[in-house]
Amino acid sequence: MGIFILIGLVFMIRLYFLQVTDNRYQHTAENIVLRYVTQYPARGRIKDRHGELLVFNNAAYDLMVIPRQVKAHDTALLCRMLGIDREEYEKQLQKAMHYSYYKPSVFARQISKSDGGLIGEELYRFPGFYLQTRTLREYPRPIAAHLLGSIGEVGKKEIEKDPYYRTGDYIGKSGIEKYYENDLHGKKGMKVLAVDVHNREKGSYQDGRYDTLAVPGKDIFISLDADLQSYGEQLMQNKKGSIVAIEPGTGEILAMVTSPGYDPNMLVGRKRSENYRALRDDTLKPLLNRAISGTYPPGSTFKMINALIALQEKAIRPQTKFNCMGPLSAPIKCTHNHKSPLNLEEAITQSCNPYFWNTFKSTLNKPGDVKQGFENWHRDVVSLGFGTKFNTDIPYEVSGNIPSRAYFDKLYRGSWNALTVRSLSIGQGEILVTPIQLANLVAVIANKGFYYPPHLLRKIEGKEGFPEKFTRKQVSTIEAKHFDIVQKSMLDVFEGQHGTARWYKMDSITQCGKTGTVQNPHGEDHSLFIAFAPLENPQIAITVIVENAGFGSTWAAPIASLMIEKYLTGEVKRKGIEQRMLESDLIHGEKEKTDNN
Amino acid sequence: MRRENTIANMDWLTVLMYLLLVFFGWLSIYSASSDEEVVNVFDFSQRYGKQIVWIGLALLLAVVILIIDAQFFSAFSYIIYFSILLLLMAVLLFGKTVAGSKSWIDLGSLSIQPAEFAKFATALALYRYLSSINTNIQRLKTKLVSVVIITLPALLILLQNDTGSALVYAAFVLVLYREGISGAFIVVGVFAALLFILTLLFGEVWVSAGVTVIAVLLFALFKKMRKRIKPLLAGMLFSIVFVFSVNYAYENVLATHQKKRINVMLGIEKDPSGAGYNVNQSKIAIGSGGLKGKGFRKGMLTRYHFVPEQTTDFIFCTVGEEWGFAGTSTIILLFVFFLIRLIVLAERQKSHFSRIYGYAVASIFFFHFAVNIGMTIGLAPVVGIPLPFFSYGGSSLWAFTILLFIFIKQDANRLNLL
Ligand SMILES: [Zn+2]
Question: pLDDT at residue A28 above 50?
Answer without folding.
Answer: no
